[in-house]
Amino acid sequence: MRRIGILGLGGVGGYFGGLLAKAYYKSYDIEIIFIARGETKQAIAESGLKIITDDAEMVAYPKLVSNNPDEIGELDYLICATKTYDIEDSLLSLQQCITSKTIILPLYNGVDAPERILELFPENEVLHGCVYIISMIFSPGTIRKIGFYEKLFFGSKTVSASKINELQSIFQNAKIESYIAENIEETVWEKFIFISALASATSYLNQNIGKILSNPESKAVYVELLNEIELVAKAKGLSLPEDIVNQTILKLEKSPKEATSSMHRDYLAGNKIEASSLTKFVVSEGVKYGVKTPLYEKISGILLS
């Protein structure tokens, strides 16, 4: 029996957790546990987790939905997809569920999650991971996914291949489009370059993807952010594609024009935003490696003021 906890049932955790719950609801070998509270917990307990896509709807039921560590019990895998500012508090609340054998897969927007998790649980094996998807909470217990593009990448230079392959098998049996990345740090940074520039630009300009692409001045802001973060990545010694900026622009152009970043959605809703992990982090890394990031610095100051 493998017990898998899903921590954070927003656009990422809710969507992929829902696929896992749907696939393994009647399984005797895999248990999917949703870690949730409040309205989300109540909605899922009563009616399951609903996922709405462009052309279909589905409802998934986990084996358990709870935020009580005594009910959750010990976990073999923990997939984390909360906001980056909740990493420490959310994981420490599950301390008794995380044994030395629990494998943790972070699927956050930032890139420093594995290091932060290892500071809390130095004995654990922590994977690196990232996803490409446009999805969000439609209402408590309901996830809305836009478009057909979805990919999950994960890997590790230290965790055994057998454990990584086991998780890949679990994902694939749930029809999750997942890939084991040999150079996972570079893969995560490629995603970070995309989401960091997008989150910073959409929130700063208060525009969605379509408006940024159609407005030359707005697009210039986005491209300049890409140029700055590319310099930081190169200074760190990461082996990224030479045309990473153009590749990232192409990804944006293939995205739904009405979509925006999750940070922009939170900004519009008056919620706490992930600017520390997605914007200020680039400024801090620039300082560490001697790279100037004036536009990131300007936007960071505005978003965090």
Automatic annotation (TrEMBL):
Catalytic activity: (R)-pantoate + NADP(+) = 2-dehydropantoate + NADPH + H(+)
Domain of life per record: Bacteria
Xref: Pfam families: ApbA, ApbA_C
Keywords attached to this entry: NADP, Oxidoreductase, Pantothenate biosynthesis
Enzyme class: oxidoreductase
EC identifiers of the protein: 1.1.1.169
Molecular function terms, GO-annotated: 2-dehydropantoate 2-reductase activity
Pathway(s) this gene product operates in, as recorded in its UniProt entry: Cofactor biosynthesis; (R)-pantothenate biosynthesis; (R)-pantoate from 3-methyl-2-oxobutanoate: step 2/2
Segments forming domain Ketopantoate reductase N-terminal: 4-155
Domain Ketopantoate reductase C-terminal: 183-302
Entry's family note: Belongs to the ketopantoate reductase family.
Record-linked PANTHER family: 2-DEHYDROPANTOATE 2-REDUCTASE, PROBABLE 2-DEHYDROPANTOATE 2-REDUCTASE
Function recorded in the entry: Catalyzes the NADPH-dependent reduction of ketopantoate into pantoic acid.
Name of the featured protein: 2-dehydropantoate 2-reductase
